[in-house]
Specification:
The structure is a homodimer. Chain A is built from 16 helices and 7 strands. The first copy, chain A, has about 375 residues and is an alpha/beta fold. Chain A has a 7-stranded parallel β-sheet, with helices on both faces.
């Protein structure tokens, strides 16, 4: 864990990939907004693509659209602030192969049968490496993706994690404006993206396979720590005994973990997506959390803190992005960094030089 | 753990406290350097005070002094980079009451008896709140502090954590230039400062008391995760049986923890500062780590990574510091932050506004 933080925080963006996908046609905010609130899925898809774009004119339209969405929410609450949330944002993570797609398919259809409208978003940490999307692929959830009451968004490709996070936060707002009251944000088992997802959702669910040393994997990555609910999947047939053991192991591992909120003790449930085992119980558990945290004011506070957290994070990320992508500053860093590594220069001396150059270039208006 | 990261990263500096202590007399780098390499403790103390200062002229002198220190190290290694380290930087943490002072006193005197020169530095997370220093107080280690072969530095008061970390990194270099081959960096049990200390030392030691639920405390704060060695202190008299239980508990807790380096499995030892129990064994363990990590090249790599890590961190911290302490930007944030909390503005919208203002003010040369 020692270097995870620094690697993430200061990862250099790749210059060769565009920051975000581009939109083929120009969209105007009022038209998109209109379609969005009417529950038009095509408008929702276009709106999310708009907030994902890094083009200046798209950014401006995206700001207009978001302002309308926030205004809508304000009016719905009688002119006051966000007040009590009326939607439920659920984070879901699990390693490849634990059956995330099957679970989302089964669980999503169950939620729809209970009268909910379900949106599935993805924070995909691997997209920037593979160039392709492994999450949010509609073919993974054939029945759910065809359903009128569901919207599945493929994860944005070729984006930095920071960018994905910003887009996902805004995509959640757009889905909520489109009438989706349950937002599932899925990600895959690598520490950083889990932390991000937990910081943009109300409830964090970890899906694990029975046996196979997964319980240690989870602990290692600090993901168990983030979890409000651990689901041991594939609890059917031959794997049922193993899943019972896994439930006990996770319950014991949770003893070593600080609670995210004193009002909730993380739970562990065996489930089977194929047989529908404990799917209603999973939803009951989540609802119990929602009711408890809403009435205690925790949900309201958590969302408020999440929003200000992201504000600071986005300020920080954008500022560092500007510094790292300015060519002369970048060149200076490339020269200084090996000297610092070798101990020929202190970290403080190098930091002073870099900052001096960056500020100088800002002053002369040379940094965009 | 959910918000710990953000709280730390974006903590606002208090405007009312000075960033660092001030020096009464002007010191010149060559004079200090001369005293330093002759092993003069008074010169070392003055040199550390100089690198801690935030005054522009002091900063310049500090840079000159550090350049001389780095040049000295380079010459000592035959003109090459840092090469193999010849000093050992040991981090030490423990909650108040576990007997840190007594341990450092006993352990430090033992190291001196083995022919070493020992410096004790402190990263004190509480100093900015209390205004006083709770670590590095010489009266806590009466015999060690009087010894010619030891130097104990009280923690700098009224500094931000970021500042403390920068200063401590440079203070370590100064101590090493002064001939101290073992640098103990002590801190107290609150997650953030432990992480910092582990990021500036070669080896991290956690001191715990027998029993009392401490083992859970440690896990909670992610400190066990950082530890290369856990010492169960006060393993004497009535507490001996309890300390044996604690050793087992920590050994079991360590199973859930990722290793910092595959070449080292964290160990647990019962010790008694008062009776000297396992003090030589503690040093033997540390030496085993040192030898293994040095011959594997891990020590060299770790120090290199630590230095570049701190370079990025200092760039980041300084940039955010400038943003946060610029009055109009600060006022804008004070207005926007509650709106973001209430959900009247997205975090991205607010971040854009703040950045725009900051860059504008830089361009016009209004930000110092």
């Amino acid at each position: 864990m020692r270097w995870q933080h620094s690697r993430h925080l200061f990862r250099l963006p790749s210059r060769s990939t565009p920051r975000c996908r581009h939109i083929s046609t120009a969209n105007s905010a009022p038209v998109l907004f209109d379609g969005l609130v009417k529950g038009n899925r095509h408008a929702l898809a276009k709106a999310i693509t708009l907030v994902e774009s890094s083009r200046a004119d798209h950014k401006q339209e995206a700001q207009r659209l978001l302002a309308m969405v926030l205004e809508l929410g304000k009016r719905a609450r009688g002119g006051k602030g966000s007040g009590l949330p009326t939607t439920f944002r659920i984070g879901l993570s699990g390693s490849p192969g634990v059956g995330k797609s099957s679970f989302i398919e089964t669980f999503g259809l169950y939620l729809i049968s209970q009268g909910h409208k379900v949106a599935v978003l993805a924070v995909d940490p691997s997209s920037s490496r593979t160039g392709g999307s492994i999450l949010g692929d509609k073919t993974r959830m054939p029945d759910l993706s065809r359903h009128d009451m569901a919207y599945i968004r493929p994860s944005p490709s070729s984006c930095t994690l920071g960018g994905v996070a910003r887009n996902t936060n805004e995509a959640i707002l757009l889905c909520e404006a489109g009438g989706y009251d349950i937002i599932l944000v899925e990600t895959v088992g690598v520490g950083q993206s889990e932390t991000m997802v937990s910081e943009m959702t109300d409830f964090f669910t970890l899906l694990v396979a029975p046996g196979g040393g997964d319980e240690l994997q989870g602990m290692k990555k600090g993901i168990v720590e983030l979890s409000d609910l651990i689901l041991v999947n594939k609890s059917d047939g031959d794997l049922e005994p193993a899943s019972r053991v896994a439930v006990m192991e996770y319950l014991s591992a949770l003893k070593f973990v600080t609670r995210n909120w004193e009002g909730w003790r993380p739970e562990v449930l065996p489930v089977s997506s194929h047989r529908g085992k404990n799917i209603p119980e999973t939803w009951e558990t989540m609802k119990r959390f929602y009711d408890a945290s809403e009435s205690a004011g925790e949900l309201y506070k958590r969302r408020g803190s999440q929003r200000t957290h992201w504000m600071w994070r986005q300020i920080n990320d954008e500022l560092m992005w500007r510094l790292k992508t300015d060519k002369p500053v970048r060149q200076m860093i490339n020269t200084l960094e090996p000297q610092v590594y070798e101990g020929l220069l202190t970290s403080g001396q190098a930091a002073d030089k870099v900052l001096h150059e960056f500020i100088d270039r800002q002053r002369s208006g040379l940094v965009k």
